[in-house]
């Protein structure tokens, strides 16, 4: 990892990425891979304010589901093989509407797949990505904060908190929902407040998860459970890295066997509730919380026997209508933050990253490397490349939240008939599964 040095003169780079969590780190590694094929390598800088640990706002203790389409893109970039040992496959998804007849399943096997996606813990992923960045050609400033951004005709000048300055042709904002870049450039977002708060925690049940994930719609909002690796396996991998590198799939099978033997499993919980109820349950004692969770979810995953640290955050849809600016593009949560109802936040952000990489690669190929990466053409090509997918995903998420958090009886009847039709008519599942898996 490169350490920034004080300088009174701005260092020239082609691309400066602000934010080194999953979107920013993935973009930087993708650019480094592209750069290695060029006669004149790209000068890439990554500025990240936090080290990768559980307190990092982008690499905290949460888990996320990486869709099958995202795994394909991460594999294409050479990143997924580095992360694969951290993943827990989702082989089946059970969807139900509490108190009503609607339910269905999405299954990997009929689609000819091993898994619909993989669940990873963000803190562990963050450590791996930063290790890979340290071995790359990317100049990493971490921990470092942007203290000023000055827009110029040919780029942006970034001032960092150690006195360093960078001059970039293209500025990429990948610094999350509270983007510092967006604030310095005076850009705004539009927001939809769903009047819900999410409780996020790791929970333990008395049954093996068998690689099932669950999405249960309740009167208060959606409740999701994602299967996770057990703690013993994680510790074993830390002690025996050589074994995990030889055959990560063997480690995963051993994990499943251990879970079955112990008769327990871990899930990542995301539970949407009215703000006052979420506050009460976040601070309730363990037995009260587990009882309320059991009542809301039922016993399909077994009996809830333990819960870890609980955190909460308000659920909103926040997005930039045009995630571009003069010589600047916004990606991931800096461009939009989604309700977690369908687990599409990171997956949409990764498609932002891939879209930008494709635009840059095409521009370089067409000009034989002599291209201004911050030009208006490239910035607007990125906007055009992302518009349809982004707009449709935002619309679908808002429709799901409003449609499944509403007790108006025509909506209740309609959504339950829809879920049942998916069960009765399997061919209807394929387009739904393809959307869930991030395929376009």
TrEMBL record:
Top-level taxonomic group: Bacteria
Pfam family membership, one: FAD_binding_3
Domain FAD-binding: residue ranges: 13-360
SUPFAM superfamilies: FAD/NAD(P)-binding domain (SSF51905)
Residues forming coiled coils: none
Protein name: 2-octaprenyl-6-methoxyphenyl hydroxylase
